Amino acid sequence: AAMRSGLKQYPPMAGVPALRQVVADKIAAIYQARYDWNTEITITAGATQAIFTAVLAIVRPGDEVIVIEPVYDSYVPNVELAGGKAVTVPMTAGFRVPWAAVRAAVTPRTRAIMVNSPHNPSGTILRDADMRELESIVVAHDLFVISDEVYEHMVYDGEPHQSASRYPGLASRAFVVSSFGKTFHVTGWKVGYCAAPAPLMAEFRKVHQFNVFTVNTPAQHGLAAYMNDPAPWRDLPAFYQRKRDLFRAGLAGTRFRLLPAEGTYFQLVDYSAISDLGEFDFAKWLTTEIGVAAIPLSAFYEQPVENRVVRFCFAKTDETLKLALERLARL
């Protein structure tokens, strides 16, 4: 409809006003945090661009940025491209953030901490106690936060998503990133957004202007119109929880050991009872010989760690999930 009506030229650099307004309203409705749509919300070419732009806005050569392993694959290269050094802090065996270790990793060169909840690849979430630990660290050491919240609408079992926007001490120093592609299952559109206080957003836009300038017009207008109805994102947790439960129930009848899946559309499994292969080789064998795609957990570490764990994705049709479960049950 946007294209047919002639909306084909460059939009404003920061994004179509109608879309920024509905994003600001959504954040306020869920997290009780009011961002100014004009000065504190920027539409980006996907969440990955938003994260990279935030890094470039604040990280200087020689700065350190703390990241939590296993870590999404763009974080460390982003920091290095900015001239900084990524300092990795590994999660516990149960994929929880060890805040004492994070606190110990802070040095005079630390500039920021990057967090991701719900977490890819583990599917775990940060709870209120986690966010308060993070808040205490960044306030004490005057650090920035880059909060990757692209799976914010995929949190299960009645748990709330704890956005950095909820916590004044975090929100005042955080770039909060989300993704329309993840939320509305249109990842190929590559549209996301970043929310941050006006002084931080001014720095963000200095980079945004010269790495992508702006984001395609028709998709922004389409998303703005679609988001006038909150039902699609409000109903998303129930939609994906049903798929998660279907997939986990099927996997319970296999030799895989299920790990917690509190959020995202990912499921980690331990395959130790099935094979002695390393994670890369097992994932390759599973994909090519069994016909079920999996990602090795070791791919999310700077120095590969072998836990005999792979990641499945359950953002598929029920028919595809049932076919995968039939194949996995034979192992």
**Arithmetic mean of pLDDT:** 95
Give the C-level CATH assignment of the largest domain. Alpha Beta
- Regions with pLDDT < 50 over 5+ consecutive residues? none
Classify the helix fraction into a percent range. Answer: 25-40%
Strand order of the largest sheet: 1-7-6-5-4-2-3
Indicate the proportion of strand residues.
15-25%
Number of strands: 11
**Radius of gyration, taken over Cα atoms and rounded to an integer in Å:** 20 Å
| CATH-level-4 superfamily name of the largest domain | Type I PLP-dependent aspartate aminotransferase-like (Major domain)
Q: Identify the CATH architecture of the largest domain.
A: 3-Layer(aba) Sandwich
Secondary-structure element order, as H and E? HEHEHEHEHEHEHEHHHHEEHEEH
- Per the CATH scheme, the topology name of the largest domain is Aspartate Aminotransferase, domain 2
Count structural domains. Answer: 2
Query: Structural class from helices and strands?
Result: alpha/beta
The backbone outline, from C-alpha atoms, is globular
- Tell me the span between the first and last alpha carbons: 49 Å
Task: Count helical runs.
Answer: 13
